[in-house]
Amino acid sequence: MSDGTLYDKVWENHAVTTLPTGQTQLFVGLHLIHEVTSPQAFGMLRERGVDVAFPERTHATVDHIVPTADQSRPYADAAAEEMMSELEENVRDSGIEFSDPTSGDQGIVHVIGPEQGMTQPGMTVVCGDSHTSTHGAFGALAFGIGTSQIRDVLATGCVAMEKKDVRKIEVTGELGDCVEAKDVILEIIRRLGTDGGVGYVYEYAGEAIESLDMEGRMSICNMSIEGGARAGYVNPDETTYEWLRDTDAFRDDPEKFERLKPYWESVASDDDAEYDDVVTIDGSSLEPVVTWGTTPGQGVGISEPIPHPEDLPEDKRDTARRAQEHMRVTPGETMEGYEVDVAFLGSCTNARLADLRRAARLVKGREVDPDVRAMVVPGSQRVQTAAEAEGLDDVFREAGFDWRNAGCSMCLGMNEDQLEGDEACASSSNRNFVGRQGSKDGRTVLMNPRMVAAAAVTGHVTDVRELPEREVDGEVEA
Ligand SMILES: CC(C)[C@H](C(=O)O)[C@@H](O)C(=O)O
Ligand code: SF4
């Protein structure tokens, strides 16, 4: 008899009761908070005189508004300073651990949870941020939640949720040269649509997924939400356990690791688990994918022509026309050669050490095109420190990249890192909505981090497979 999917099992393990609404009250293992979405929730608690129920299960960081150049206080931007001060006060009053910029542990919320070993298999993780799905890479059930839910979790340690269906997305075969996790997820969203996942949680499986490192799995799970899914996960395996073994949670406590491992193994989906839907994609047929439009689903293989709106399903034509006008792309042509003004290597999708290493190998010995403003924004201070120890910062700086401090930065332009006017940006982030990077006329082209590096040095969207990698001195692996 099948015990079911990881989703079923972890849900059951955390279900407290069924509420009169039909929703399940789920116990939350880890509540991550950041400066943008938590202040209002803390305000509601204060109004009612309620304390935070489980401060030890709650962890804070600052990421969206944090300046990535001069971080001296007070921040130059008064609104940013206010959000930061409010967060500082809330965590202090509630006894919540805070990875603040003086700790050396600060970073984007979806980077620091996994790197500190807070995110573990079989856990429920919530955060007032849509890309919380990232944590599913560890076999956790991870959900983005809204303000009233943040309030509920702070007050009770529980959240009310509806159970969804599970769609298994099986990516078979071996990924080709320079084809990355980012290309896999852009392809999935392109095929199934930005609303194709509505009503589902995605389980990513198959040889191409299993052979990814944790960073790659995080990139995929990160964008589940861009495909409309409520969450996304990968079953835990040896790759997952190896990552965890070397985190703060277990480094000095191998016994705890051994104690928990059987539970982690037990939550993986059973071979005979039943799925509500199964989609299979041949991973070996993929090439680097870039977006031509203004949703993450408007993507195309680098050697394929941009679609003619009239060839698309009727309900997609108008948005495609508008997107192509905004982006100033020509249907029938490829994206290769599309000129860029900015190259942004950052975000919770693609600013981990493995991403920066791969990009550095390509950048080494090359120069950023003189017409391109290029920046690297590490996903966390730990990523930054590790990259600097390997000399990656020098590789990027020597090529002409700006090497900045950790934060969300130009992923959404809530700090000073923004596009100007109608600048076009090769971006390793996850959203290309109109206005996303700080300018309403800005044009974002999503791609994998090596493709961003390639665009930075050539000045236009480039098939990275045509630029051979160079060796980087130091500890960078081949
Ligand atoms: C600011 C925050 C609420 C938002 C999110 O929920 O995703 C941000 O992280 C984003 O990527 O747009
Ligand atoms: S890096 Fe971008 S997508 Fe990720 S949490 Fe920050 S703003 Fe959201």
TrEMBL record:
The source's domain of life comes to Archaea
Query: Which residues does the record give as [4Fe-4S] cluster binding sites?
Result: C348, C408, C411
Q: Which InterPro entries match?
A: 3-IsopropMal_deHydase_lsu, Acnase/IPM_dHydase_lsu_aba_1/3, Acoase/IPM_deHydtase_lsu_aba, Aconitase_4Fe-4S_BS, Aconitase_4Fe-4S_dom, IPM_dehydratase_rel_enz, IPMI_cat
Pathway assignment reads: Amino-acid biosynthesis; L-leucine biosynthesis; L-leucine from 3-methyl-2-oxobutanoate: step 2/4
Which PROSITE patterns does this chain map to?
ACONITASE_1, ACONITASE_2
E.C. designation(s):
4.2.1.33
Q: Name one GO molecular function term.
A: metal ion binding
Q: What does the note under cofactor report?
A: Binds 1 [4Fe-4S] cluster per subunit.
Question: Which cofactors?
Answer: [4Fe-4S] cluster
Q: Which CDD domains match?
A: IPMI
Gene Ontology biological process terms from the UniProt entry: L-leucine biosynthetic process
Question: Pfam families, alphabetically?
Answer: Aconitase (PF00330)
Q: What is this protein called?
A: 3-isopropylmalate dehydratase large subunit
**Native source species:** Halobium salinum
